[in-house]
Structure formats: structure tokens, C-alpha cells
Amino acid sequence: MKKLFFNPFEKNSETRLLVFGLILTVAGSYLGYLFNGRYDGVIDLHFIKNTTLAQPFIDNLITIVSLFAALFLVGKLINSKTRIIDILNPILISRVPFYLLTFFNFKNCISNVTASIVEKLDLKGMPKELDLSPFSMILLMLFAMISILFLIWFVVLLYNGFKIATNCKTSLHKLYFALAIIAAEIISKILISLLIY
């Protein structure tokens, strides 16, 4: 069970992983639409009041392509035999934690709470008055804690897949991996901000 959640790449064929990853991507994008989630960055999920059907799909496409470009380049640098499918599969599978987080915005719970907080900020970004119900506070804290755990899960999944794909071993290789994620985050943010949809 541990392997399934943290390293499904060892015991599953690349074709099976690809098909499963593509199905999860479509399902996750649709969940983004249902729960008003925007995947507006490689390591981002934000909730808004209303999401169009296209937005989470385009967000996902941009984040996946950005992450693929950065990791494939680094993968080739580490190991010239790195293949496209070996980098793509971990990216598709590692997005699952973000898709699961969308359920927190059932009936716009999270987006309503965050919108009420933003409305009470002054020009310096400090809250003028913060009058949240105990339920809202608990919900926000729970969401924040689970988001951190799921972000770690995302990185572990991605790294385990990348490690198998490239045979990375050294600390320098791990640094390249981390820098690739940061670069992909920046690229995806810029591309999504440039698109009006």
C-alpha cells in the first residue's frame, strides 16, 4: 500500500501509468471545474467564486507542460537516456494530491471564507477586523495543514518517479530537481497570467 501511494512507478508498466495519469488529469480538471479550483501554478491551487469548464483544463495543461519542459531538460542533463514517457508519467500521477484538495471547496466553503478575509484587508494588506466563526477558523487551519501534507506528497511522488526515470543519485542531481520545480512554477505562473480566459 505504501508503494502505491508514494512510489507506484516501480511495479506498474509505463503504458498503464500513462493511461491512468491521463484519466486522472481529465478527472482532476473536471473536479477543478466542479469545486471552482484553479491550478494556477505547478504547486498552486486557488479557489474562486466561479470557474469556467475550460479554466482548470488549461491551467493543468500549462502546469504539466511547464513542469515537463523543466524536468525533461534536467533529466537529459543527468542521464542522456531519459525518455519522454518516463518524465511525463510521474508528472501526471503526482498531480493527484491537488485534485483531492478540491473537495475542500464543497459549496464554496474555502472560497467564501478567503473572500471574506480579503474584503477586510486594508491598503497595506493587514486585516482591519477579522470576525471568523469557529467553524471557518477550524476549516481554514485544517485545509492549511492538509495542503502542506499533500504538497509534500506531490514532491515525494514526483521525486520518486524522476529518480527512477533519470537514475539520479547525487546531491547535485537533487538540487537540479528542486531548481526545475521552481523554474516550472515561475514559467507556469507567467504563462497563466498572460492568458485571458
Task: Record the SSE blueprint.
Layout: H1 2-6, H2 14-34, E1 37-38, E2 46-47, H3 54-78, H4 84-94, H5 96-101, H6 109-119, H7 134-166, H8 171-194
Antiparallel strand pairs: 1-2
Question: What are the salient characteristics of this protein?
Answer:
8 helices, mainly alpha, elongated, 2 strands, 69% helix, 197 residues
Strand content: under 5%
Instruction: Write down the secondary-structure element order.
Output: HHEEHHHHHH
Total beta strand runs: 2
Count of separate structural domains: 1
Q: How many individual helices? A: 8
Low-confidence stretches: none
| Relative helix content | 55-70%
Class computed from helices, strands and strand pairing? mainly alpha
Largest sheet: 2 strands, antiparallel
Shape call? elongated
What radius of gyration results from the CA coordinates?
18 Å
Mean pLDDT across every amino acid position: 91
Alpha-carbon distance between the termini? 40 Å
Oligomer: single chain
Strands of the widest sheet, in order across it, are 1-2
Describe this structure in words.
This protein is mainly α and 197 residues long. The protein has one domain. It has helices at 2-6, 14-34, 54-78, 84-94, 96-101, 109-119, 134-166, 171-194, and strands at 37-38, 46-47. A two-stranded antiparallel sheet has the order 1-2. β1 (37-38) and β2 (46-47) form a beta hairpin. α2 (14-34) packs antiparallel against α3, α3 (54-78) packs antiparallel against α8 and α4 (84-94) runs antiparallel to α7. The radius of gyration is 18 Å and the shape is elongated. The N and C termini lie far apart (40 Å). The mean pLDDT is 91.
